[in-house]
């Protein structure tokens, strides 16, 4: 028996993308026991809650999943499904590599963003401007801080915890060590948010002492944005709270000149591998990126040689045949997706 993996397979063109990834991963020679969740149009028309429960139950059986693109019949944003899955499976680490392959604005980009996925403003509390709760919060915060908060303000509160900060920073250092990366940079805004980001930075410095073999530094996110554009090769693994990680990883997608990037959501028990794609670009337009998510999955399974070989095969095919594999070509059809997978499989032989 091979590694049990749930393959979440959508309908139509989405299914062809999932099949292409399965074909390429199988060509590495790693034995995968695929448990396929075929999502037909009837299932995809379900409300997001029962649909997410169905997917979560499938993932729990194998603990590992490769999630292909899903086009919901209801027209709802599939990221709602992603958020529900991540919450129910406690997937606290979001891994987003940024590695340039095709010609783009930045060459030789090779860094990894490690994003905390359960806290910060995305998981915080918001009160509408006109609500009683917002008025109470404004009054309380004004008295507490001595600062005047405008009466027409909405109010948001972000949580940053010792546990959340500790587990994501430790994840980043372990990832760096296992993947022969040499530096971890903690990204924050502790000079402004001294209590919340300050706690994150304090925990990062404490954990860095446990990894003397890995270089450690920290950067304010405002400074990092400038330095990342000026000299992206100066960075290796970047670890940060939720919102900064989301924004910076989308910046890196643009720096790569690609339509999307591989992505992984990992917790203590479960892991889901899918694609980070800008909202305006359907995931089904990028089969090679889901295959690169398979690289992350193979790393997670401990098959590091196979992961390296698959990464090399994808890059060689994309470099040699950009007109064939480029997802920017108008009208690209599912048959081209199959050709991508077959070319990568041949490169692995």
Shape category: globular
List the secondary-structure elements in sequence, H or E. EHEHHEHEEEHEHEHEHEHEEHHHH
Helix content: 40-55%
Strand content: 15-25%
CATH architecture of the largest domain: 3-Layer(aba) Sandwich
**Topology-level CATH name of the largest domain:** Isopropylmalate Dehydrogenase
Number of domains: 3
First-last Cα distance: 23 Å
Number of helices: 13
Highest-level CATH class of the largest domain = Alpha Beta
Radius of gyration, in Å, reads 21 Å
Residue stretches low in confidence (pLDDT < 50, at least 5 long) are 323-332
Number of strands: 12
Give a quick account of the main beta sheet: strands, pairing sense, barrel closure: 10 strands, mixed
CATH superfamily of the largest domain: Isopropylmalate Dehydrogenase
| Sheet with the most strands: spatial strand order | 2-1-3-12-11-4-5-10-8-9
**Coarse structural class:** alpha/beta
The average pLDDT value, as a whole number, equals: 89
Q: What is the secondary structure topology, with strand pairs?
A:
Elements: E1 3-9, H1 13-26, E2 32-38, H2 41-44, H3 48-62, E3 64-67, H4 79-88, E4 93-99, E5 110-116, E6 125-127, H5 132-145, E7 155-157, H6 162-178, E8 183-188, H7 196-208, E9 215-220, H8 221-230, E10 237-240, H9 242-256, E11 261-266, E12 271-276, H10 287-300, H11 304-320, H12 322-325, H13 334-348
Helix pairs in contact: 1-10, 1-13, 3-4, 6-7, 10-11, 11-13
